[in-house]
Design brief:
globular; binds flavin-adenine dinucleotide; 9 helices; about 25% strand; 8-stranded mixed β-sheet; D-Amino Acid Oxidase, Chain A, domain 2; FAD/NAD(P)-binding domain; about 30% helix; alpha+beta
């Protein structure tokens, strides 16, 4: 049932908006989710959806991601219907990835990762066709089916009393002085005590309305989805030029590397190339047949880090936009809900506020 707390509009029902809306609703807010298209998002359905914290991140970003990995356990206990698999990843040697150093550094930061030999690789992934003498096993990594997670969390928020309005594209904000009092949809104004923008790559055009210039790039990424096969992969495998995992429905999902932009330039030949790598990397008694490719655009703030928080100078308005929104979904959802409802800003979010891109104070006069 809807709570008696403040009225909050959440713009966007991708994995970030869905998580914020669900956490807010659970905490007693009266939430309305406005979604231009349908629950599930735009970036979210085209994501590789790997949960991790392990690259050359600044320490504070590593810590936030690591915290969110644990938070996935909390979320999947609260919502057991979510398709979440935390079955670990193995990393094979690759250019630019020195496994000894990688494991040592991550272990020093409290990550559960270890070097394993060829025999253990074979035990974990007997169908792997790539030869290796050594690999790194990250025990707590995993993946989710992100589009379903977003749709199921949105539905769970609705079950708890949130209102979902689909096909509603927000054009701008209603303002009284320096406070946002709602959103504009065509000629209509929908009022709220608080508004949270979780609109993925569309976030900059919305917040520009209140004078905030959010620098965001949208690097593309191509993924190949095979037809479903019986289970042949137990966890994620990250190899040179090939990242792969098996989805809950049996499809193998393959991407190239952390960017994969060059393959996305021509999805047809890029898809063929990914399938060639997949055939070389994985043994399957059933044929691995390409069902489709997908190209997604990562909502990536200019410094590569999440932008989460209130806009200084504009009361009642917050944003949450990031790459790695799948990894960060549970932590960001809980932290944003808490900040909106209590004003308490979680210490792990401190480095990721909106103020770092502020060139000049926002004032109502500029709107
Ligand atoms: C190829 C690829 C691989 C990736 N791999 C990973 C990975 O392995 N691990 C990881 O953690 N992350 C990964 N990501 C990133 C991750 O998918 C994104 O960070 C995440 O999906 C962003 O979710 P979101 O809810 O912010 O945005 P979206 O999913 O884009 O949702 C935004 C929603 O807002 C709605 N909207 C927009 N404008 C308006 C408006 N004006 N009014 C109303 N509604 C509006 C849209 O319709 C959409 O539904 C990957 C992304 C891509 C593309």
């Amino acid at each position: 049932m809807a709570g008696k707390g403040p009225e909050v509009i959440v713009i966007g029902a991708g994995i970030i908006g869905a998580s914020i809306a669900w956490h807010l609703t659970r905490a007693g807010a009266r939430v309305t989710i406005l979604e231009a298209s349908k629950p599930g998002g735009v970036a979210t359905p085209n994501s590789f959806s790997w949960i991790n914290s392990n690259f050359h991140f600044p320490r504070e970003y590593f810590v936030l991601r690591h915290h969110s990995m644990e938070e996935w356990r909390r979320l999947s206990e609260a919502l057991p219907q979510l398709p979440v698999s935390l079955s670990g990843s193995i990393y094979l040697p690759a250019k630019g990835l020195e496994l000894n150093e990688f494991v040592a550094r991550n272990t020093a930061w409290g990550y559960r990762i270890e070097l394993i030999d060829a025999e253990r690789v074979k035990q974990r992934e007997p169908n792997l066709a790539l030869e290796t003498e050594v690999a790194a096993l990250a025990h707590d990594e995993g993946a989710v089916e992100a589009e379903q997670v977003a749709a199921l969390m949105t539905a769970a928020a609705v079950d708890e009393g949130a209102e979902l309005r689909i096909g509603i594209r927000v054009d701008g904000f209603a303002l009284e002085g320096e406070r946002v009092t709602g959103v504009c949809v065509g000629d209509e104004t929908l009022s709220a005590d608080e508004v949270v923008v979780a609109a993925g790559v569309a976030t900059p055009e919305l917040v520009r309305e209140v004078g905030y210039d959010l620098p965001l790039s949208m690097p593309p990424g191509l993924l190949a989805h095979t037809k479903p096969v019986s289970r042949i992969l137990n966890g994620l495998v990250l190899a040179e030029g090939l990242h792969m995992r098996q989805k809950a429905n049996g499809q193998i999902l393959a991407g190239s590397d952390f960017q994969g932009a060059e393959l996305a330039e021509d999805p047809e030949s890029g898809g063929e190339e990914l399938m060639r790598r997949l055939h070389a990397g994985l043994n399957s008694s059933e044929p691995l047949v390409l069902e489709r490719t997908s190209t997604g655009y990562r909502p990536t703030p200019a410094d590569g880090l999440p932008v989460v928080g209130r806009l200084p100078g504009v009361a009642g308005l917050g944003v949450a936009v990031m790459h790695s929104g799948v990894t960060l979904c549970p932590a960001v959802g809980a932290m944003v809900a808490d900040e909106v409802l209590t004003g308490h800003r979680h210490e792990l979010l401190a480095p990721f506020g909106t103020e770092r891109f502020l060139k000049a104070p926002i004032t109502a006069a500029r709107v």
